[in-house]
Amino acid sequence: MKKKMVATLALAALFSGASSAAVLRVAADPVPHSEILNYVKKIDPNLDLQVIELNGNLNANELLARGDVDANYFQHVPYLRDQEKALGEKFDVAATVHIEPLGLYSRKVKSLKDIPDGAQVAVPNNVTNLSRALYLLQANGLITLKAGKNDAINNLATPADIDSNPHHLKIVEIESPQLPRALDDVQFAVINGNYALQAGLTPSKDALALEKAQGNPYANVLVTTPKLANDPRIKELAKDLASPQVAKFIQQQYRGSVIPVNQ
Prior knowledge:
Elements: H1 2-17, E1 24-28, H2 30-43, E2 49-53, H3 60-66, E3 71-76, H4 77-87, E4 92-99, E5 103-105, E6 120-124, H5 127-139, E7 144-145, E8 162-164, E9 170-174, H6 179-182, E10 188-191, H7 193-198, H8 203-206, E11 209-210, E12 220-224, H9 232-241, H10 244-254, E13 259-260
Parallel strand pairs: 1-2, 1-3, 6-9, 6-10
Antiparallel strand pairs: 3-12, 4-12, 4-13, 5-10, 5-11, 7-8
Helix pairs in contact: 2-10
Protein name: Metal ABC transporter substrate-binding protein
Organism: Pantoea latae
Signal peptide: 1-21
């Protein structure tokens, strides 16, 4: 824990020291967020954008709250709201950009029809994505949640809410970035789109089941602080991320694995 904290503080200091008043510092996951931001740098060279790629030792919302970055781009709103409660902070959503459908993957089973009795299913261990994974399993007929668990945003689900489990699935909670590695050890894993892409998976082709894009409440957003919400640099980046050029880039680059909100 001490080593992790030292690494985080050292990196945060580096980010802060490297910045200037004109530079817009944005923390982002490597795929697809940093790739999308680097494309923005090409189409809008007047925006002095510094992309800071996240790793497992960094909490981008803590960096934002401390002022080590000016914005972040890696999360959906339900996760953000949970982070606000945990950190005792308030943040602003500057732009809604894309959806990464959560997917169910396996290296041992080719079809959900072949699901073995007692199969282990690895799922994200954070509150919002754990619930999201359970709703995905329910949508594909693998489990049934208790009555009233029909709203993924307002009724977060936990394994205790499973009412019917005909295949006797065993839910294994794992940190989201580790889920692709778990595929060798479990029969199934529910993986966030960005981590699937980083692991060389193509969600639109490799997933046995994917969340629906229509009406999906888990769109990834550009987040900043209330103090910077009206900063011209933030507004310019938000406009770029909502542009037809960026939507076209996302469509061509990820071919259904990442879906632009502004199509």
